[in-house]
Amino acid sequence: MSEAKLFLKVATILNLNAQDVTATIRLLDEGGTVPFISRYRKEVTGNLDEVQIINIKNEIDRQRQLEQRRESILKSIESQGKLTPELANSIYDAETLSKLEDLYLPFKPRRRTKATIAREKNLEPLAQFILQQKSNLVFEEAEKFLSVEKEVKSVLEALQGARDIIAEIISEDAIVRETIREQFKKTAIIKSKLIKGKEEVGEKFTDYFEWEEKLATCPSHRMLAMRRGEKEDILILDIVIDNDEALNLIERKIITNRNGECATQIKEAVEDGYKRLLQPSIEAEMRLFTKQVADEKAIVVFADNFRELLLASPLGQKSILALDPGFKSGCKVAALNKEGKLLEDTVIYPHEPQRRLVEAEMVVLAFCQKYNLEAIAIGNGTASRETEAFVRNIDVLPKSIPVIVVSEAGASVYSASDVAREEFPDKDVTVRGAVSIGRRLADPLAELVKIDPKSIGVGQYQHDVDQTHLKNKLDEVVSLCVNAVGVELNTASKELLSYVSGIGPTLAQNIVLYRNEHGEFKSRKQLMNVPRMGEKVFEQCAGFLRLLNGNHPLDKSAVHPESYYIVEKMATDLNCSINDLMEQKEVRKKINLQNYITESIGLPTLKDIVSELEKPGRDPRKSFEIFSFDEKVHKISDLYEGMRLPGIVTNVTNFGAFVDVGVHQDGLVHISQLSDTFIDDPNKVVKVGQHVWVNVTEVDAKRKRIALSMKGETEGNKQLETKSAKQQTVSKEAEYNPNDINSALAALKNKFKK
Questions:
Q1: Closest by CA position to 381, among listed 436, 454, 338, 308
Q2: What was the pLDDT predicted at 733?
Q3: Which CATH fold would you assign to the domain 636-712?
């Protein structure tokens, strides 16, 4: 199939304009990235968004792979001298890989089978005689094939060989296979049962010891759970259909004369071929197909959750005191400047068994005083709530310094990683963990890109799904998020830079090395001096890199350097400077966009440019909201049924959402408890990181299970969002005053003396 026809096919499948699809594929083939094309080539693509471009990319890749397989099959059959015009047409018309493989199956090189042995005995003509069903003189015909040389000693042996051939022919027939495949899709039942003697070791799979449901409606999380049980040798898993109905369907397609010996022989061959060849083959297909569907759904859930984490509200460039809590080993303390650089670290022991409270308070206040710290971040792991209570109880700590509990999921993985060792070679893992906690508060995106997403613990059964597909999807999510937010060129880590459109790990390393050797970048154009930075890569990445203090005023914006001349012309036409355009709303109102439309630049790009002039390099993430757990709740034993609590959504799955209420054990809000009305997708109600009100409906401390409900909390959650926004406004307005710390520290020293 020609490329033009492929492009049209993609457009038809996705229900998009063919011209837009063709232009988009051309850009992708030329090395364009999805973020670049969706942001800076809107006129070319017809203003397609990122999701549409990704769909085009995936579909054209699928169609091209299909075409490659089609050509390979045609060549293989032709080389065997068996390619007929009818077969070639069928192969060209096949729309799916499964149909292609069905057509190719009879011509595939194969191992020696029963049918192969029968053909070696020259019984193929007898099999064809029976299949033609023109005569019922089957036994008489079979006698003609008796041969001492071929080891066909009796009529029964001849008929058995013929049936073996018929069984294989039918099991490889494309129409028959598609019929049974559809029967599996429509009617199959998936069954699981316990392997005898595995009751104790397989306790977590109790729900599936005796379980069955329709395959077509089995949700992805149950499918993956049962498959894990099978993989761990706890469960036996079967996919079954009504075999009698399947046999009837095949017979109706094959048998044209139900009376006589031919029909009898074919029926016997059909039953043998179905049970021995066709049914196991299609069941294996269904296992693979349903696994792929379950994987896809689970990966989408993981990707959605991960996207919410990456785009979580940043506190921003603040000097932060980060605490990694602990009991016996103490709390690791790290002071970070506004750029996230580690200034100093130590350990305090405010909890049992040491309980050096006053000393710990003095250290916290001294750090705040010494480094003018503006916020305190506390990890949510062991001793988190106790550490939070300790800090909040420092009565002389200025209220202008917010105390914020931060998820430390994955922080330990980062601490032991090569990235962390390279950054802090002389610090142990505990200090690195504290640094990561503080940085995650300031900018979650910049810190999370350093951590393997699978260690963060969002989604469902992420270790059971196709790992290559999962990695590709998560890399795609990170790339889209990083480029949507933009990256400060002079402070970004190489990990963050590697996800910028067109850059990658090697060039990211080169950028950092160049920055370290030559100092801060003064302009985007200076990137061209970096080794391996070519014109094409610069085109792809430049618009997503920001320079807050660059030589050119547009370097801090998302305006692409290729469009600087447009803004310069706007400024000239209005007899003002570019800075005037960026700072004065009244001046921007005078811009007539129609004056700047060209063959390559249209209104979409011009509107984006004016939007950037208004708010250069705007961060699309929401404003940071301060959140606090219930101060009376610290452990699971503090919970009771009917209790109403604030919480943070930590994970969203197909069956509900997990919520952290501050007791070191997330509670589950089942999908049926998420809303007062029916919902089929938890993501319609909650997102990872969302602040919610929940009600405790059940507590099982022994099994560490907490059941929660959000029913009746619609208004309460709206009020919580409003309250959080107000709290944030107050915290922004509260000015930090170093003198507050000085007086607080003096008061604490007096307390210590007394």
A1: 436
A2: 38
A3: OB fold (Dihydrolipoamide Acetyltransferase, E2P) (2.40.50)
